Structure formats: structure tokens, C-alpha cells
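Input/output pair, single chain:
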Amino acid sequence: MDYLDFIDSKTKTLEPVGFDVPSEWLHPSLFDYQEHIVRMALAKGRFAVFANTGLGKSLMQLVWADCVVKHTGKPILILAPLGVARQTANTESVKWGIPVTYCLSGEDVTDGINVTNYERLGNFDTSIFSGIVLDESSILKSFSGTTKQLLIEQFSRTEYRLCCSATPSPNDYTELGNHAEFLGVMLQAEMLATFFVRDGKAAMAEKLWTLKKYGKVAFWEWLTQWSCMLQSPADLGFNGDGFELPPLYQHEIKVISGITRDGEIFTMEATGVTEQREAKKSTLALRVAEVAKLVNNSDEQWLVFCDLNAESEALKKALNGAVEVRGSDKEDHKSNSAIDFAEGHIRVLVSKPSIFGFGLNFQNCHNIVFVGLNNSFEMVYQSIRRCWRYGQKSRVNSYMICVDTEGRVLANLKRKQKDFETMQREITAHMKAVQEDKRNNGYNPEVIMTPKLFQPKEEIRVIDECHGDDFNIFRGDSCEVIKSIPDNWIDYSVFSPPFSNLFVYTDSDRDMGNVTSEEQFGEHYNYLSEQLFRIIKPGRLVSIHCQDLLATKAWDGYIGLKDFSCQIVRLMEHAGFYFHSRVTIWKDPVVAMQRTKAISLLHKQLKKDSAMSGAGLADYLITFRKPGVNKVPVEGILTEYYGENTLPFSSDPNSKSIEIWQRYASPIWMDIRQNDTLNFREGKDDDDLKHICPLQLDVVRRGLQLWSMPGEIVFSPFLGIGTEGYVSLEQKRKFIGIELKGSYFECAKQNLRLAEHQGKCEQLSLLDLA
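Output:
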């Protein structure tokens, strides 16, 4: 494959599998934005609609299903939460005039649209359906992993698929992965590894995955290929008038528990689930009494949510006209209660968020009470949205009855609410930006470079360049810029490549670390290695710094190691190089444990299960030789470097010190100074998610002293902040380097100019200085 074709293939695009729908098939009641979404979903074939509550997902999914039935002539199935399924068949179907059959099993299936609740999926032969709709699809994460996987497997061959949900959970991006995997877009593990990192600090705040800063634009662009997100029609460029929500008033009513722990005078916040539950039990009567004051002194409808059966039972007795719905009740009672409450036949409905907190339309009610705090913000949010949704005519009152010991839970809910509001703004802004203007990867093909150390075979594209007396560095794609270096021109090459997809330094598809798999990394690397083989002189060497990689549960399905160093060996041998040598560089496992928090390095793992304990990861310097005869023998001059003084270990600088040679020839380098690196802080930019890990100067010095001579040309296709170039100038070599990332390139320019200036100063005598 041509290199540019390969770069194009890395762009994550999805081929549509749907169809264009005739206008006469579309329901006349659709708003303009709804018609736009339905047409888009049908054209894509497999699509997700993340539309805020009250924007008409029910109508859109019914119209989508009706069009699929007309197109295929085969039945379609809608899966919905309990209560929502009956509401779809008995209310929404009648309201819009689109026939829907409620089914208990496969025997009830008709040739048209069929609906059932998620729990009954096992009663159906899913192979007969041409399409599937997941209503309130965010409920997927509430199911066990087995049930969720069963859903994915059951409909993996279904031609047309639609997911409908309100905006995904603010603290759980894995929900988007559930949708992508169900729709056949991308595996959840692949999505997380492609666009996210797992961060220790974020995990402490219950945000298990953090969006890579360089992956933001690509992630939102990828989402627009198979979904749409909107809080209002205005988010898609349509008129948003009439879609303003009424005010929401959130009230906190605190109940004094009077509970003190042993040795304490004052009531303290509960620190664990057990203490919270004990506080709830001891204050049940007080909390129910507070609810009764609100409900019994009003003739309006009330939706009352609780967590415990004891609470539900006490509320039914204390509240006038209350109807109680438990999880153990029959489905008919649950469904009929939801319909009767929606139609105003029930004044007070008492239940749990897990039963009536998703999918139902209760705009007829504008009073909600939570009898106790729920640790799940999404449960609270979704429960409030049953009433606070488009179509609600009155201000909505939400009351939270909380115990004084639950301060931490309340603070956590408020923090999550703030995070959710931030996420909503970000989603809206990013989706708008992506739809209006496709991202620009920043690659400027207009600048032409004119190298000094060599004459290019042809004009090649670079973004920037910098030249010194003994160095040329270029900002651009190394796989392209390297093509201008003449054959058999480079004496020695040393560099540290991207470690597969461990880090993504830019959002460009030209970034070799911006890959989705080890296989794609290898394919990209091959374009570089074949050019390396061309430009290295016969009999000369290439040294590559690398380490093996951690295998993670999310990405690889297991915890262990991936042999990245051997992958590099195979790739270089494939290009034609001989495997010359391998040096192991010792790394401190304590430092690695503090940085990575790998369970294999945690001391507590010895007590928990030492079978999962392991050793730290070493670095490697792997060296390869190009076949052929080296015409100019290399006379290695081994020296140690201390601060600013290079001190030979022999009175004869051309002889090899036995002492230093024994250490350099060792297969394990124990004495590499880990902190002996260039200053990387100036190379960071606002989008860097993790700190730069520059290569140690000692490693590069030893490679240069062993396998090159002063005056020879050294090359690095991954310049970074200039480590290899800095040491090359320090050791009186010439240097050529290439770097894609702008901030790194700017830092490298400063470092190489500094190295060149220091070299010139060393050559001045005291008289010259005077």
C-alpha cells in the first residue's frame, strides 16, 4: 500500500449500511430536527440517538422501526425497560397511529413492530428480526456483564440497529463503548484504548477513564459518524424555540439522626455503607414524617422514590392515596400503575428509581421526593427527568430528605451534578464544532525544506526546519521526510520510537503512536524501517531504545506483558537488518510502582495473591546491522561524562579503557543515571496528558562512542526534544533529526542550539575570550 493510502486507512470512518427513505414513509408529525435524525439513522443503518428527555425519542424510534419494516418486509423488535414497553404499545402507538404489538414471547410476534421488556429477551428467536431498537439503551450498564454480552451476541447479525437514550452518564464513558460494541462500530476495549487513558487520580474521583487530550477532536468526530447528541434542536442547527425547560427547584430537608459513635460527642458523617445504612434505618420514621408533611398537605400528584422495602411499606401507610410498586410485584401491576399515574388516576406513586426511574413520561407531575440519598447520580438525574422534561408546564420541585450523617454522599452527588453539566456543555460544543468544520491535523504541505547536510532527491513536505553548522532538523512526518536522505548516507542511527499505542503524542494519523493495535503499529513502522535500511551505510548500525508493554484487562482481556522489544526485532529483520545485540537497562521497580500502580509491583499483592506479583520492566537498547562491508572501520573511544567535562579513562584517548569497556560490554547496564536527561518541561503543551519521558543521555552517549566516530552523521526519525541531537553535537558528530509534534520541535531547536554554542565555547582559548 502506498504510504499516503495507509495514512488515509488509519482514519476511523464507518461505511453506511442503511438506505434512503422515501418522504411518504415519514410521519407527518415529525419536527424538522426529528426528520433529520430519522433520515440520518436510516441512512447509517446502525445508529445511536442521544437526545435529552422530551425531545421525542419515542416517536423517532417508532418511525425508524416502521420504515425498516416497510423496507425489509420483516418484523422488528423494540426492547424497553419494564413499564416503558407497555407505555409504548398502549400509549405512544395509539397517539401516533403506528401499530405496535406488546409481546410476552416469540409466539406473540407479528410481521410489524413488536415491543417487549429487556428481561423477556430469552423468550424470543432474535434471528427473525430485521431490526432492533434499544429504548433507554443506557440501562445496558445496569445489567450484568453476562446479560449485556448476550444482547450484543444475539443481535450481532441483525442488519439494522438503533439505540435511543438520554445523554450518557457523566462519569462513565464506558457506556458509549457499550453502544459502539452493540452497534458493531468498535469493541468497547478498542474504543477505550484508542481515545482514553486510565488515570489514577481520575479513578479516585470515579472517572475511571479520561479522554486523551490529543484524542478529543478525533473522538468527537468518530462519534458523529454513528450517533448524534443534542440537548436542544438548536444543537443540530434547527430552531430551538419552545424547547426551554421550566425551572427546577431542588430542596434539601435534613433530618437530625442524633447518632454518635463511641468516644464522640457530636454527630459525625458516616464513613462507610454500613454506617449510612444504620443511619437510614434509625431515622426511617423521621424521614417518612417529613415526606408526609409535604404530600398530605397537598392535593397535587407526587412521585416518591425510596431505596429500601421498609421505606416503601412505611410510605404507603403514611401517605394519603399512595400506590406502592415493588420489584417483586407482578408486571401487570407495575405497568398498569405507571399508565394510571401518567393519566392522573393515581395521586401518589411510591417506588424505587430502578423501577420507574428510566424512560417513562410523567410530565403530568411536577413534585418529586427522594426519601433518602442515592449514591448513583444517574439514578437521581434520570428519576428527576421523568417529570422535568420538555412538555412540562409547571416548575418542578425536587425534595431530598437526607440524614445529617450523609454529608459526604450529598457532596458527592453535587460534584457529579457539576461534572455532568460540564460534560453537557463540552458534548454540545464539540459535536457542533465537528459537524461544522472537520478537524485539521495541522500538517502543512506547502513549506519546502532545503537540507544542508545532504541534497534532497526531490522536494518534500515539512512544516518547519532549523539548521546549524553541524545539524539539520525538520518538523514533519518522518516516513516522508526520510525519503529525501540519499542512499547509504547515515553512519549511525539511534532513537526511541513510540511504544506502539502506549502514548499518543498528537491527534494526527501520521503519528506512529496513534494506532489501534500492535498490528497497525507494525504496518506503520514498516514504512520507516524500509527507508532506514536504504539510508544506513552497509555494515553500520541502528540502535533502538524500547521496553516491553503492560497488557491490560480493558485492552487485551488479560493482565500481563506484551513482548514489544521482540516485535521491534521482527520488524527490523523484516526490513533486512541483522539482529546485532541487546542491552538490558536496569530500572528501579519502586519508582515504576509509584508511577504506574501496577498490581504486580504492589507489596500488598504478595498477601492478596502473590501469583499476580512480578518484576519491574527494564529498558532495552536493541542494535541492528545492515548487511555488507563497513568501508570505514569505527575506532571506538570510550569516555565517561561528568557534568560539563568529558574525561578519558586513559592517558591515550585512542585506546579503550578496559574498566569502562567491561561495563559497556555487559549485557546489563546497571549504572545508567535515570535523571540524566534534557529539560523536557519546555516541550510540554496544554494537550499533553502525561509527562514526557526523554531518553537518558548516558544511553545515547554509549551508543555513539561504541558505534560511531567524530565527524560522522547520526540520524533520529523521532527527534522529540532533541536528546540524540544534543549528545551527537556534544560528542562532535553531525546530526539529522525529524519530529512531527510542534512543541517538541521548538524545544529541540533550543537544545541543539545550546549544544552547538557550548561546543564552540569549548574551542575558544582564554586569549580568544579576552
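The longest strand covers residues 536-547. The mean pLDDT is 80.
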